[in-house]
């Protein structure tokens, strides 16, 4: 008899003011932290997390103001980086995490790695250097046609321009030499392959 894949459980960390809600799969092994892009939520990582099975402890976190995490008055990148470090540390897994950042969360994953012990960082669909002014401009970079129909339910954005603009402080601090391509959601286009590639970093 083969072992069953770990079931997803949902948790909340912090006070009502800075609460972060996350899903967890697995209780042991290296932490793998999955971070969604702006206007989406943690459910975009469910297919990949389920594929990772018992090989690690997977966390899919809602950014502040997204999903079930509380909105904040201050979305400063360094504060959220610190909050994420405390959340990971309280799991008592005693291993440096692998961080996976989709879209704008690539900036959060990179900021975390600059401050805290990290096994690896994987970024997907990295953002441009400046935040778009409108939700339509933001969504125009997303190629949902590449996502098979059964997985599109995991990439439903909020059309909230105020939420989008609340993250403006993340941008414009440091220009990176890179080419930004159209976002194809590879973790939803082929979750099995994505999970296989991610295991090589664990």
TrEMBL record:
Keywords assigned by UniProt, alphabetized: Hydrolase
One function term, GO molecular function aspect: hydrolase activity
Domain AB hydrolase-1: residue ranges: 32-172
Regions annotated as coiled coil: none
Pfam families: Abhydrolase_6
Keyword Hydrolase: yes
Protein name: Alpha/beta hydrolase family protein
Organism encoding this protein: Actinoplanes lutulentus
């Amino acid at each position: 008899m083969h072992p069953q894949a770990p079931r997803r459980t949902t948790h909340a960390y912090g006070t009502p003011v800075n609460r972060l809600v996350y899903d967890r799969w697995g209780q042991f092994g290296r932490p793998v932290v999955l971070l969604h892009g702006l206007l989406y939520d943690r459910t975009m990582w469910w297919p990949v997390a389920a594929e990772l099975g018992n090989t690690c402890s997977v966390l899919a976190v809602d950014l502040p103001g997204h999903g079930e995490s509380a909105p904040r008055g201050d979305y400063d990148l360094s504060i959220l980086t610190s909050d994420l470090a405390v959340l990971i540390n309280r799991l008592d897994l005693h291993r440096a995490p692998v961080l996976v950042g989709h879209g704008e969360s690539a900036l959060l994953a990179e900021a975390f790695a600059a401050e805290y012990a990290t096994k690896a960082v994987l970024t997907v669909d990295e953002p441009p250097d400046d935040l778009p002014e409108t939700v339509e401009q933001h969504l125009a970079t997303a190629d949902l046609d590449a996502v098979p129909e059964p997985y599109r339910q995991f990439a439903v954005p909020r059309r909230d321009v105020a939420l989008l603009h609340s993250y403006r402080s993340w941008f414009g601090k440091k220009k990176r030499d890179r080419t930004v391509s159209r976002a194809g959601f590879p973790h939803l286009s082929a979750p099995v392959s994505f999970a296989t590639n991610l295991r090589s970093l664990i």
